[in-house]
Amino acid sequence: MKVMIINAHLSRVMGGSEVACHINTKAFVDKGYDVVYGAVNGYDDSVEWPYPIVEINKQDQKDLATFLIKQKVDVLYWNYNKKLIWPNFKNIRKAGIPIFFSVNHVNDLQYYPKKKPYKSPWLILKHNLKKVTKAYHFFQARKMINGYIAINKEHLGLIPERFNKTFIPFGVFDEYVEPAPTPRPYVVWVASIKKVKNPELFLDLAKALEHLDMDFYLIGKAQEEHYASWGEEAEKQPNFRFLGGQEMKMTNGYIKNSRMFISTCEAEGFPMVYLQAWAFGRPVVSMNYDPSDVIEEEHLGYCSHGDFQAFVKQVESLVTDNETYEKISTSCRKYIDEHHNVSRNVDRLYAYFNESKK
């Protein structure tokens, strides 16, 4: 059974689902399964990747069914959100290829995902027409899906009972490159720099905790024009360091050597970077989002649920209280070993494909 995992590739887009697909594809190969990565809009072909990989160019995207037939694919594992799904899903099913849809973000299950508001009446009308069209395409496409795979257990309840569904969490990418020694201990924030990630709150945190012997490192690239020079401006804060975008293994190195990982993001799927932090025994302190309540229930850090003053106190407590810090650090490693072992999870994926493909 040949599986194709479709998504953008991490050599082009450094996001959580791209990292997860890289991990899973490599693990499929390591386990001896027949797999190929379908990289939407290409990949860095100067690198020798540890798995078979093919580019899905603009022309192929218009007729994915023919592309999959040429690649002799038996099962499609779709990780590319709701992009390109219609009429491709209809044609893929006509070709007899089962489709498994990974729910990587809450928006993947919504007909009308929340977007930033427009001020112009013309843009509002244009946006609403586009939104209705996309909703109709999703309504039609979801009938073609053989099974949903949620990476966040709380998303299972958002999938109607009439659909085949399961919960299989991401594995962890824990390879790293050791960064240069840092002059002071630090906490770290990693994400694309855009409004829904709220990087301003991380800067506010640095200002609120300026009295600590601690620096605040921000890693990420600006994804919106508003933030084009934001990082450089933020460095005027004495304890704030803007590192820009970093290669994946170097990012892991910074996480590994940090005191803790800080998140100011809005609700999404199950952030891969949380797993990377926990794999290194680093607590996560989240301002807004605790996926499936695992941070609090498994004692993996803290979530302040939007309360900035509580957020500040939680971070400070993990800087000053070493006993609590060590207990949480131990819980982090234990949780990853029990729930996010990539070898076990790809076996579960393969079994689910095999059972549900008919």
Automatic annotation (TrEMBL):
GO terms for molecular function: glycosyltransferase activity. Residues 179-333 form the Glycosyl transferase family domain. It holds the Pfam family Glycos_transf_1. InterPro entries: Glyco_trans_1 (IPR001296). Gene3D superfamilies: Glycogen Phosphorylase B. This is Glycosyl transferase family 1 domain-containing protein. It comes from Roseivirga seohaensis.
